[in-house]
Amino acid sequence: MKSYYIYTYGCQMNIADSERLAHQLESVGYAPTEDVNSADLILLNTCAVRELAETKVYSRIGELKHLKAKNKNLIIGITGCMAQKNQAEMFKKAPHIDIVLGTHNIQHINEMIVEVQRTHKHQINVDMDNTVLQELVAKPNGTFFASVPIMNGCNKFCTYCIVPHVRGREISRPVEAIVKEVTELGAKGFKEITLLGQNVNSYGLDFKDGTDFGTLITTLDGIPGIERVRYMTSHPQDMTKSMIDALGASSNVVTQLHLPIQSGSNDILKKMNRHYTVEHYKELLEYCRKTIKDIVVTTDIIVGFPGESDDDFEQTLQLLKDVRFDMAYTFSYSKRSGTPAATMDAQVDEEVKRVRLQQLMDIQNEISLEINKTMEGKTYDIIVEGPSSKDENMWFGRTSGSKMVLFPKDESLKIGDTVIAYIDKAQTWVCYGTIVK
Ligand code: 5AD
Ligand code: SF4
Question: How many whole angstroms separate alpha carbon 186 and alpha carbon 192?
């Protein structure tokens, strides 16, 4: 039996695609292996959102060269956003790879493998069809948590972002297909699902029949076995009050919202092509906090976007203090060729970006800790996810708001159990607790 190994980089969408690649490979007899050195097929499912992501992939590809020298039948394939972005150029940089497969073509993986075996030549398919969305079966990595893509692509064209260029236009999956998948997952014992899309708030708008993200959320309420429905990522421009009402009314949607703001300066938001203001964002969040009890809010922020002045940056710091996110994912602006921001004037110096990023993180960490401290002495429902990566005697689970709670390993607990945890001590990133039931 032949074996495969998949490295997944980047976002949850890539994790979901890897699960779909795995299913296809297993349908023709490949078996997964934990040992990359003995694999017959290695896939790198890549990310292109920042330059660092690409650098990591190229260095990994370089490391695989010696395996190819040892086993001339080894097949190496590059899939995902970087494959779509760099296309045939990847063969020039790394001739030892065999397959370059774009984001709209993962359903062709098995044919590509057969062609490599037959011809021993490079195979590439980076065609994009923005009119169809493939229904592909997944092999979920876990047994209790699964991700469910609800749409593909993005129509927003934020000026810094490569995603619309490599994932194509928004296409939504039919409601019935999503309900079917979630129902099957529930029946198989999955408890927690994550609905995925680059911009979930524009889900269904392409059907032009009144369907939207709110109606999807309402439809998914009450599917047997599904205790938690997560969703990401939201966009402040498309999130409406009726969607927030649907999220608040649902019995299984979690109390977590990831709502990227990107910058606290209206001038910068405009240059980013984000189409909302800080004032609109704050109003939206106020409505969310009023409608969804105990909501945990996280965000994404980019520092050093072209033209970001000290004053613009100060406004971002002020925003953090005003809004008080539970957590912020902070990024230093990275030039992506082919995007408008890459050629904008007034690119910010790397050292300035580094200092700003640190300042931002320092302020946010303080806020995260203060918010987490308010959890001490309270109890939360958590679903057990298993041993922590740092210490196998400590297990962890997550609250509905996705806060990580660590607790001493308890033989009577299994992965996937829903239990109540009492929070003894909170830190910036995690809490320590005791299982009370
Ligand atoms: N540089 C830095 N950060 C970026 N992001 C997207 N494109 C870039 C870029 N060129 C960030 C945004 C987005 C997150 C997933 O990655 O904040 O929300
Ligand atoms: Fe990129 Fe903006 Fe689309 Fe998000 S909404 S994927 S940041 S273009």
Answer: 9
| 302 ligand 1 Cβ < 6 A | yes
Residue 300 Cβ inside 6 Å of ligand 1? The answer reads yes
Query: CA-CA distance, 40 to 71, in Å (whole number)?
Result: 8
Q: Which residue has the tokens 């940056």?
A: 313
CA distances from 240 to 91, 254, 294 (A): 45, 18, 19
Look at ligand 1, atom 16, and give the residue with the nearest C-alpha: 49
Ligand whose nearest atom lies closest to the CA of 274: 2
| pLDDT tens for each residue of 159-188 | 999 999 999 999 999 999 999 999 999 999
pLDDT tens per residue across span 125-155: 999 988 888 899 999 888 899 999 999 999 9
Ligand nearest to the Cα of 48, by number: 1
Taking phi first (over 0 means left), then psi (-120 to 50 degrees means alpha), and beta for anything else, what does residue 21 get? alpha
DSSP 131: T
Residues 6 or more apart whose CB falls under 8 angstroms from that of 120 comprise none
- The answer, yes or no, to whether any atom of ligand 1 lies below 6 A from the CB of 260, is yes
Q: How many CB atoms lie within 10 A of CB 47?
A: 23
Residue 15's SS3 state is helix
With tokens 């923005």, the residue in question is 130
